[in-house]
Specification:
It holds the Pfam family adh_short. Belongs to the short-chain dehydrogenases/reductases (SDR) family. The chain has 253 residues and is of the alpha/beta class. Helix content is 42%, strand content 15%. The chain has a single domain, classed as NAD(P)-binding Rossmann-like Domain (Rossmann fold). A seven-stranded parallel sheet has the order 3-2-1-4-5-6-7, with helices on both faces. Helix 1 packs across helix 8 and helix 4 packs parallel to helix 5. The chain starts with 6 loop residues before the first strand and ends in a 15-residue tail after the last strand. The model has no long low-confidence stretch (mean pLDDT 97). The protein binds NADP nicotinamide-adenine-dinucleotide phosphate. The site of NADP nicotinamide-adenine-dinucleotide phosphate has 29 residues, from helix 1, helix 4 and helix 6.
């Protein structure tokens, strides 16, 4: 009898980087468990992956709801991979006028969401004898930019969570991989940030020759996960060639 495929849980799998990562990890031989709040989208993606001959299931989950996360975690005795991808930005206001509610929500989703799911699934990752936690932070987790305040603060929080967890669990069979992308053109990230204002969202990528795609980032995540288990890619920073820093972007317009 063939051994069961290792399981990978992906949060925020209903769009963008999370959906692309689910497709690529499934193709790499993982049984993928797709989670996000929008059940219809993850169910449709699970059906697409299954039709392509791979293994996928969907589970509706809000990462900020600790009771729901704990309930979800009871399904896993062992787990190979957790990709903490759910997150995003809200607003681009200066610190002087930013809405504290936006800051709170970004901290809740990016930091507490990652904390909730990681804490709940760490026992299963450890029990697997070879677990991997991936944390999708951002180059916003490594340095700041004007108008980034709340998002930058939250992503710095996620970066610190990854660095601290790696120190604390060394010696256990779980590695902690942080992937920090720069500018990625996904269908929803900028639209969510600007609350549906398509014009403002389009300006983020205006004149940039080839921002990263969700597939580019999924490729780096899948590469890092599929290294031999003793190899820990601590931090992988990936940007488009046209971007030299958070605020230094070459534009043709
Ligand atoms: N795009 C970029 O330029 C960029 C750059 C660096 C890092 N990142 C990071 O990469 C990750 C993915 O970004 P993306 O560009 O793919 O964005 P996206 O297309 O907006 O996807 C965000 C995902 O997070 C999920 N999500 C949001 N809040 C959630 C919650 N409370 N519970 C569960 N799921 C939640 C959303 O699903 P539901 O709405 O269905 O719940 C969605 O699937 C984020 O952490 C983002 O901060 C993005």
């Amino acid at each position: 009898m063939a051994a069961a495929s290792p399981i990978a849980v992906i949060t925020g799998a209903s769009s963008g980087i999370g959906a692309a990562t689910a497709r690529q990890l499934a193709a790499a031989g993982f049984r993928v468990v797709l989670t996000a709040r929008r059940k219809d989208r993850i169910e449709a993606l699970a059906a697409e992956i299954t039709e392509a001959g791979h293994e996928a299931t969907a589970y509706a989950l809000d990462v900020t709801d600790r009771a729901a996360v704990d309930e979800f975690a009871t399904a896993f005795r062992t787990l190979a991979v957790l990709v903490n991808n759910a997150g995003g930005a809200l607003g681009a206001d200066p610190v002087a006028t930013g809405d504290p509610a936006d800051w709170r929500q970004m901290y809740e989703t990016n930091v507490i969401g990652t904390l909730n799911v990681t804490q709940a699934l760490l026992p299963a990752l450890t029990a697997s004898g070879n677990g991997t936690v991936v944390i999708l932070s951002s180059t916003a987790g490594l340095s700041t930019y004007e108008g980034g305040g709340g998002y930058v603060a939250a992503k710095h929080g996620e970066h610190v969570l990854a660095e601290t967890l790696r120190l604390e669990i060394v010696g256990t069979p779980v590695r902690v991989i942080e992937v920090a992308p720069g500018m990625v053109k996904t269908e929803e990230f900028a639209t969510t940030r600007f609350r549906g204002d398509a014009e403002k969202a389009a300006k983020v990528y205006a004149g940039v020759d080839a921002p990263l795609s969700a597939d580019d980032v999924a490729d780096t995540i899948t590469w890092a996960i599929t290294r031999p288990s003793h190899v820990n890619i601590d931090l992988l920073v990936v940007r488009p060639r046209a971007q030299a820093s958070n605020s230094k972007v070459h534009r043709t317009v």
